[in-house]
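Sample A.
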Amino acid sequence: MQEDYDQSSKSDCSSYSLSPKRLVGFDAKNKDSLSSYICFVCTLLLRYPVQLICGHRLCQSCVNVEFLRTNIREHFLSQQHQHVLLEFLTEKIQHLTNNKDDESIVPYSTTKSTDRELDESSHVNLQQLFETMDIVISGLNVLNDDTQRLTSESFQYQRSIQSLSEDVFRLNTAIKETHSSINDHINSQQIIEEGLTSLQQQLDDQKNISHNGTLIWKITNIQQKIGLLNRVFFPNNV
């Protein structure tokens, strides 16, 4: 499959908008073994391939699908973008290496101007590759920082959850103990109320006893008091 990698076919991936209708790439059973020829958008074999400046390969009809400028930072930091970009960089480096090998066998009769143009072109390409690699490395550093931050936050959340679970357990235990104390207090109060009710009933029963108007009271120490009366009223009989 021939790909068009001319500068005219390369486009900035941040300047495209969604196209609702398009002709996607070719489907094949062995497409997984042809990862270098898979469209970044439709994930099928490339149809009229176009390669963007960022390194993605798309079908010509899929070019209008990606990407909005508002999402360009997230796109550059995505794992899929970095994977495609690394593949592109590898191919470009191999291509430049092959060009250097070809230049080494060029006859000495080649003009200095041609050598200068090739050197300048190679220098520009290498500079672009280094800049792109800096972007990739920066993106990887950002991803690593985010991963460490998320890991730390996750650990803190786990500790907070564990602490809250322990607090909830202690609170449930205290609630159960409080309920038990309340139940004991209620039982004691019921017993006291029953005792007071019984006493009140006994008092009411005493009040309701009729003696036909006769006053009745209790006299203690009867024998002693009778002896005292005899000595007072009948001293001669003592």
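Sample B.
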Amino acid sequence: MGKKITGGVIHQYRKKRKFQSGSIPLLTELGKEKKFIISCRGGIKKIKVAKAEFINVIDSKNKAKKVKILGVIDNPASPNYVRRGIITRGAIVKTDLGNVKITSRPSQDGVVNGVIVQGK
């Protein structure tokens, strides 16, 4: 919104359309569970994880367990993410079962999944 030279208000041409909507990346952090539901174009709903406390871990026998995340060890996306405790796909986190590599996209899928990695 702005003003004309005469002092009148410049009105908005139209509201935002669905295709114009977008947002900055939501970087999932460690902390108490916090999720957002975003409605997207075509009636699609995305669940974004803002903060994650637990991870679903798949072991070598294809058994799933829900365990607590203790910390971020490595993140190939950015070394700064390790210091800030940000979880993205491909990040390696420390859990009670050992080191786990994130296989899901927390800010897109709405869930944090991972597999146990050996040797890291």
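B remarks: The two ends are 54 Å apart (CA to CA). The CA atoms of residues 92 and 101 lie 4 Å apart.
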